[in-house]
Write a structure and sequence with these properties.
The chain has 2 domains: 170 residues, no CATH class; 96 residues, no CATH class. Strands 1-2 form a two-stranded antiparallel ribbon. Helix 5 runs antiparallel to helix 6. The protein has 313 residues and is mainly α. It has 9 helices and 2 strands. A hairpin with a 5-residue loop joins strand 1 and strand 2. The radius of gyration is 44 Å and the shape is rod-shaped.
Length: 313
């Protein structure tokens, strides 16, 4: 409905506006009682009631139906300006209405310039109406004009402060929303990076375990097939090695699946066990003991890596 009551405003400030709305209705009721008790009966009292009622009606419609196409904030301010001028001309309690409705210029004005423009217009219309009724005098200049300008100056300072508070609250709310969006994007990026790292780890484990085992099975199968006719005894050992390697590969595959379900919990020592198994299988199939050598290799694009080789005595 208003600039100060915008949804992005600070919750404390929004609660303050709701409390002011309640106080405003109480003050409107008090002004109505004052008109009944203090103003003499006659056409002047009815006219004052009509002017006050027009302001209350516009405020109620705008507060209850902020999106209505008829009573817009600027329309409400125009009615308020005319009501203040009429009450000042009638000599009724215009001063109370003037002070009570000071926040309305800042609530219904879209910008500080518009708010101060309506406030200045209300001040000018009120003073002109009083001058039209009383005429020019020292009392008018020394009391009415000075006191009205002091009230207006205080209202302007409070309104500008309120607008600055709302602007800071809106900016803070915007920064909080932007921070939450950035955190969500960062969390999503971390999840994507974690998934990519997991795929890379599984590919590395498959290469270091299952691929090595399948390569060993292929070599052993070729050797067993070549020696079936000439020397069946070594071929039997190689077939047993094929069976053992296949079982070990099956166990490695189950470990990999289990580690994937545990989100990145790799099987400890899988590479070392695979290397040890290959060396033992090499010694069993050939009868020649072997030990691993860790070789440092330079990469073409820069940097270095490590490779494993067999050292046969």
């Amino acid at each position: 409905m208003t600039t100060l009551a915008a949804p992005s405003a600070d919750p404390f400030w929004a609660a303050s506006l709701r409390r002011w709305n309640t106080v405003c209705w109480v003050l409107f009721a008090a002004m109505a009682v004052g008109l009944v008790a203090m103003d003499p009966p006659g056409g002047t009292k009815f006219a004052a009631f009509a002017l006050l009622g027009s302001v209350v009606l516009c405020y109620a419609v705008l507060d209850r139906f902020p999106g209505n196409p008829v009573v817009r904030p600027h329309v409400c301010l125009c009615v308020l300006v005319l009501a203040l001028g009429g009450l000042a001309y009638l000599g009724s309690s215009y001063a109370a209405l003037f002070m009570v409705t000071l926040p309305h210029y800042w609530m219904f004005g879209r910008t500080p310039r518009v708010s101060m423009g309506f406030l200045g217009l209300a001040t000018a219309v009120t003073l002109l109406s009083i001058w039209w009724r009383q005429g020019w005098s020292g009392e008018f200049l020394g009391e009415t004009v000075v006191s009205t300008l002091i009230v207006v100056a205080v209202g302007v300072l409070i309104g500008l402060w309120a607008h600055s508070v709302v602007a800071q609250s809106t900016e803070r709310a915007r920064l909080i929303v932007e921070l939450e969006r950035t955190q969500a994007e960062l969390s999503e990026a971390h999840q994507r990076q974690g998934a990519a790292d997991e795929r890379e780890r599984m590919a590395r484990d498959i290469h270091d375990t299952l691929a090595q085992g399948f390569a060993s099975i292929v070599v052993l199968a070729e050797a067993a097939r070549a020696g079936l006719a000439s020397d069946p005894a070594p071929s039997g050992r190689q077939l047993r090695s094929i069976e053992s390697t296949a079982r070990e590969n099956l166990a490695e595959a189950r470990e990999l699946v289990g580690s994937a379900r545990q989100r990145g919990a790799a099987a400890p020592g899988s590479v070392a066990r695979t290397l040890r198994r290959i060396l033992d299988r090499f010694a069993e199939d050939t009868g020649t003991p072997a030990r691993p050598l860790l070789l440092r290799m330079c990469r073409p694009g820069g940097g270095s890596g490590y490779a494993t080789a067999l050292a046969v005595p």
